[in-house]
Amino acid sequence: MSPRQTTRRPSATASKSKPKKVDPQTQESSLKAALPLLETEEGATDEVAGRDLDKKEDSALAPNFLPLSVIILPATQPRRYFDPKAMQSLVESVRREGILQPLLVRPIGDKYELVAGERRYKAAQECSLSEVPVTVRVMSDTQAIQYALTENLQREDLNPVEETEGILDLLALRLSTDREGVVTLLNKLSKAQRGLVADNDIRQEKQIVAEVFASIGKMSPEAFRTHRLPLLNLPSDILDALRYGQIEYTKAREIAKLESEEERSELLHDAIEFSLSVAEIRKQVVAKKPKSEFQQLQARWENAYKQSKKSKLWEQSDKRDVLESLLTQLEELLVEKG
């Protein structure tokens, strides 16, 4: 038998889609359980996200069913890339079993905006489901964004680019600033930690930063600053390859050391096509990198020395005078240096 949600159809005469009703007492108790989360934007404490996604409260909210056509995606989505193989696996699962975990949505006018569950939403579209199970929660714009960011960061299959951008955006939201402001603050906190500057004027921000990283539980603020922020400065082609899971971060950093865009693009292609190891990539980078003026001079000297020994210039009478003059100049240079 087909999954329940594949067979249900919205009323053709309904002027506005509403979640299907559940028992009034159950609905009342569910709403009471959700009251701490139903704050307006003006009074929001923004503590709704970052508490392990409030799983206990989610389980208390009985799911309703909504037509897929009334669910819209938010303007800003924290996740931009989905692994094709993992996505196809989910589609096949939904086709067999239906949507097992409700989507989290919030009412926006006569529509419902998706807060969490984008992969399930896309799988439902792929399977042409008419309706899906949802949990409806009244949330402010700030709460919805923060919830979505936090939920996304709990995933284990995030690539380093999305994770770094997600953490930056979550910090920016909590600190009421932008990404650049977050970077500036993290640099200042790092200096304060090393005793280079005072932290009297950023103690509140320091506490917020600590709370965010504690809720994520993956790295410290300093580790994020030193190891993850440089990632966003990678050339766009390498950043895209990293975002789409085509290459690992360690390999991406090595390839980015090449200044020539043409050579970098060529090595990136080979690294993906032939699954080159980090050691193989590093070897090619060293071979391709232009030598400094000092290194070039040293290479010329060593090459000239080898060639002179091989040709035995001192035995060639027509070149002996020139060689003796050059040796005299060289000896004078060595005396001056000594």
Give a verbal description of the structure:
The protein is α/β, with parallel strands linked by helices and 338 residues long. The chain has 16 helices and 5 strands. The protein has helices at 4-7, 24-34, 55-60, 84-97, 118-126, 141-153, 160-175, 179-193, 203-216, 221-228, 236-243, 249-255, 261-273, 278-288, 293-311, 317-337, and strands spanning 64-67, 71-72, 103-108, 111-116, 131-136. Strands 1-5-3-4-2 form a 5-stranded mixed sheet. Strand 3 (103-108) and strand 4 (111-116) form a beta hairpin. The radius of gyration is 31 Å and the shape is elongated. The N and C termini lie far apart (93 Å). The model is unreliable at 1-16 and 21-61 (pLDDT under 50). Residues 64-153 form the ParB-like N-terminal domain.
